[in-house]
Amino acid sequence: MIEFLKGKVVLIDVDSIVIDVHNVGYLVYCPNPYHFEGNLHQEITIYTYQHVREDSIKLFGFSQREERWLFEKLLQVSGIGPKGALAILATGEPDMVIHAIENEDELFLVKFPGVGKKTARQIILDLKGKLTDIITSKGNGSSFGNITQEKSSTSLHNLELKEALEALKALGYVDREINKVIPQLQEEKLTTDGYIRRALQLMLK
């Protein structure tokens, strides 16, 4: 298994990034690729998980080992695949997910795409009491999505909002869910990552 990759981010897509490691481009699927938009053409370290199936081999990447560990735990739950696990981690707040599991908060879990009541109950049954070793580190510098540069162009923000909406669809959210939060998103001027995070916050309320 590849523990991590260290290289330059050369491309950001709705569900993945390409990282150049010594002139080899690795396609890495991420919970929220736009989390790395502030690091385009910069060197990062991303912790990886290699998922092998009969018909495909994919790399999944995370900014923290703890996120990867939770991803691996979610994959052990019946009914949760890589795409579903990525959608659950896309908020960038693994502690919220752990808190919901430990408190048997099914209403929170079913808000993620592809998670119904049966799957939410299975997540709780399989993982409750097994996630206490995860240490989430907010604000410790391990997150690559901090953007401080102000962008005032309306057209630029429209583009970033469009990218955010496409990323939400890639995570499995349907138009009905996305359309509910668009009016509130249009009132704000955020980065693509910011729009994604804000949309997820609104949909998880």
Automatic annotation (TrEMBL):
Keyword annotations of the record: Cytoplasm, DNA damage, DNA recombination, DNA repair, DNA-binding, Hydrolase
SMART domains cross-referenced by the UniProt entry: HhH1 (SM00278)
Keyword Hydrolase: yes
Compartments (UniProt record): Cytoplasm
Pfam families: HHH_5 (PF14520), RuvA_C (PF07499), RuvA_N (PF01330)
Region (Domain III): 156-205
MF terms in GO: DNA helicase activity; hydrolase activity
Domain Helix-hairpin-helix DNA-binding motif class: 72-91, 107-126
Domain of life the protein comes from: Bacteria
InterPro entries cross-referenced by the UniProt entry: DNA_helicase_Holl-junc_RuvA_I, Hlx-hairpin-Hlx_DNA-bd_motif, RuvA, RuvA_C
Main localisation: cytoplasm
Subunit structure as annotated in this protein's UniProt entry: Homotetramer. Forms an RuvA(8)-RuvB(12)-Holliday junction (HJ) complex. HJ DNA is sandwiched between 2 RuvA tetramers; dsDNA enters through RuvA and exits via RuvB. An RuvB hexamer assembles on each DNA strand where it exits the tetramer. Each RuvB hexamer is contacted by two RuvA subunits (via domain III) on 2 adjacent RuvB subunits; this complex drives branch migration. In the full resolvosome a probable DNA-RuvA(4)-RuvB(12)-RuvC(2) complex forms which resolves the HJ.
Family affiliation: Belongs to the RuvA family.
Function text: The RuvA-RuvB-RuvC complex processes Holliday junction (HJ) DNA during genetic recombination and DNA repair, while the RuvA-RuvB complex plays an important role in the rescue of blocked DNA replication forks via replication fork reversal (RFR). RuvA specifically binds to HJ cruciform DNA, conferring on it an open structure. The RuvB hexamer acts as an ATP-dependent pump, pulling dsDNA into and through the RuvAB complex. HJ branch migration allows RuvC to scan DNA until it finds its consensus sequence, where it cleaves and resolves the cruciform DNA.
Comment field on protein domains: Has three domains with a flexible linker between the domains II and III and assumes an 'L' shape. Domain III is highly mobile and contacts RuvB.
Name of the featured protein: Holliday junction branch migration complex subunit RuvA
